[in-house]
Amino acid sequence: MRRLSVLTLAAIAAVTLAGESFAGTVDYTFSFNSGTGVTPTVQAGGTLELMLNSGSTDQYTVTGATNVTISGTAIGSTSESLTLVTNPNAPSSYTDPTSGITFDNQIVLANGSKLLNDNGLLFSGPNSLYVNFYTPTGNSADFSLIANGSRTNISGVFALSVPEPSSFILAATALVPAIATAARRRRRARAAH
Q1: Quick check: pTM over 0.90?
Q2: Domain assignment present for 30
Q3: Tens digit of pLDDT for each residue in 168-192?
Q4: For 4, how many CA atoms within 13 A lie in the half-sphere containing its CB?
Q5: Measured distance CA(17)–CA(169) in Å, rounded
Q6: Residue 184 covered by a domain
Q7: Most exposed among 75, 86, 135, 146, judged by the fewest C-beta atoms under 10 Å?
Q8: What was the pLDDT predicted at 103?
């Protein structure tokens, strides 16, 4: 039994390390909600894929985003899907030639630090919609919306939630009790003969 436990723990560690080394990224869920009494309103959210910057312990480049949507009176009566605009100059800032917005797609995950900086994250959507989440010096979080050439700045709260384990790691962890049970039954069957 002790040998099986050691092998099981080793397998879990190997799967965990392999998942990290293959992807090198971690997923966080984010949300943005306009502040109380702020008009127009905005709600946005989705999943961000973060990669630790070389030589850093707390600064990440957002390398991808999935299921990002935005809704609220700032964009009209529909919910829109957003796509992360790639920063070819990461981790330094870059000015998007189409929207004219300077961004860097950087997030800092350190106690007491702002999540976003003055440049922030840039997303694009349908009909020339551009969304820039950033944190100006001294503020909580702001949102800049450019729709049809008109810019609207909205204050609110940008938040990240704790990353969820990948489904591969969860599946591997779920198999461990099944493997242990099968091994135990096999041992009992041998002992009975």
Answers
A1: no
A2: yes
A3: 455 555 555 555 565 666 676 777 7
A4: 12
A5: 10
A6: no
A7: 86
A8: 94
